[in-house]
Amino acid sequence: MESLDALADQVRQCARCRLSRTRTNAVPGNGAGNARLMFVGEAPGFHEDQQGSPFVGAAGHLLDTLLASINLSRERVYITNVVKCRPPDNRDPQPDEIEACRGFLDCQLAMIKPAMVVTLGRFSMQLAYSGVSISRVHGQPKRVGDVIYYPMFHPAAALHQPRYRSLLEQDMRRIPEILSSMAGTDPTPAPPAPPAQLTLF
Ligand code: URA
């Protein structure tokens, strides 16, 4: 695959699983092609399916607010989902649907080469953690190869249960420091970094 645009075209034409038959639009992802920070959610919802862009509904507005809290906007990061088409009635994505879509996410990771992947919710958390509860591991960065995976609750959780909002805010606030202290270093712990501004490019 030559470019993210070509990959997005492939996603839009994809018929590898049953979700292609019920979608309005596939949602490949968007943002900066050279982002150091990538956010991976679960699957498009109603508004994302209508518009073909990720996180444009209520959860997306909260994600924008959380990004703004660390002086970022979505144009400076890359945002996508584990599954690129909306599951009917927003049901959970099925294992075979996740598997069918996995190659697209792998290509996005290979092309963008983010330093840090923030997983939003329990489905994308599986990229780095399996068999654990998100309540136990949220906010704990884990290096896998060259990439730091950082699990966070899904923003939609805070829309249903307000107590998740402060956990999301806390975890988000730690991203600049983790990025500057862990990214691009070997796995040995780096000395504590001063409060950091993100350098994304
Ligand atoms: N929830 C997700 O996981 N992804 C979206 O794009 C929107 C809502």
The helix count comes to: 10
Mean pLDDT level: 92
* Backbone structural class: alpha/beta
User: Can you tell me the residue ranges where pLDDT is under 50 for at least 5 consecutive residues?
Assistant: 185-201
Q: What is the top-level CATH class? A: Alpha Beta
Instruction: Indicate the overall shape.
Output: globular
CATH topology grouping = Uracil-DNA Glycosylase, subunit E
How far do the termini sit from each other?
A: 23 Å
Total E-strand runs: 6
Strand order of the largest sheet: 1-3-2-4-6-5
Q: Report the CATH superfamily.
A: Uracil-DNA glycosylase-like domain
Portion in beta strands = 5-15%
User: What is bound: which ligands?
Assistant: uracil
* Rg over CA atoms: 16 Å
User: From the 3D coordinates, which CATH architecture would you assign?
Assistant: 3-Layer(aba) Sandwich
Describe the structure.
The longest helix is centred in the middle third of the chain and has 18 residues. The protein has a six-stranded mixed beta sheet with strand order 1-3-2-4-6-5. It has a single domain, classed as Uracil-DNA Glycosylase, subunit E (3-Layer(aba) Sandwich), CATH 3.40.470. It is 41% helix and 12% strand. With 201 residues, the protein is an alpha/beta fold. The C terminus is likely disordered.
